[in-house]
Amino acid sequence: MLALTRVLVVHHDIDVADQEVDSLRRLGYTVAQCSGPTANTCPILNGGRCALADNADVMVYDAWASGDMDGSSCLIEGLRRTHPRVPIVLTFPGMGLADFDDAPELGIVTLFGQPTGVNMDAAIRRAISSLAPAFA
After folding, report:
1. CA angle centred on 100, ends 96 and 106, rounded to 5°
2. Tens of pLDDT along 77-109?
3. Rounded to whole angstroms, what are the CA distances from 102 to 5, 22, 73, 88?
4. Which has the least CB within 10 A, 36, 62, 67, 71?
5. Please, what is the average pLDDT of the chain?
6. CB contact set of 44 (below 8 Å; sequence gap of 6+)
7. What CATH superfamily is the domain 6-135?
């Protein structure tokens, strides 16, 4: 775990989100949680900034949080535009998004399959280290 790393977990399934949050907290991360645009009004999709993302060192984001592929692509593009210094770990229970499968140069790292604490920790480390040289 990276010292005092603040993680924003965004997932449309509250039970999965709770599991992810619990796993990351057990590893020592400070974690905030959001249900995403299917449950809330999303400032990113409305052209604004997200206060939760503003306070995060990294986001662990359900790639399907918006409910469909087009919405997910728009959401991820909006996150990169408004929060370019916050790396993103995209979690996929199955197939990925064609445009965002793995783009460490953009601070986007994919995590396919079960997002266990160990898997999320490794992906978070990779995402933070991949984006850090661009802003050094």
Report:
1. 145
2. 888 888 888 999 988 866 555 455 667 777 888
3. 22, 25, 13, 10
4. 67
5. 82
6. 37, 50, 53, 75, 78, 79, 82
7. Response regulator (3.40.50.2300)
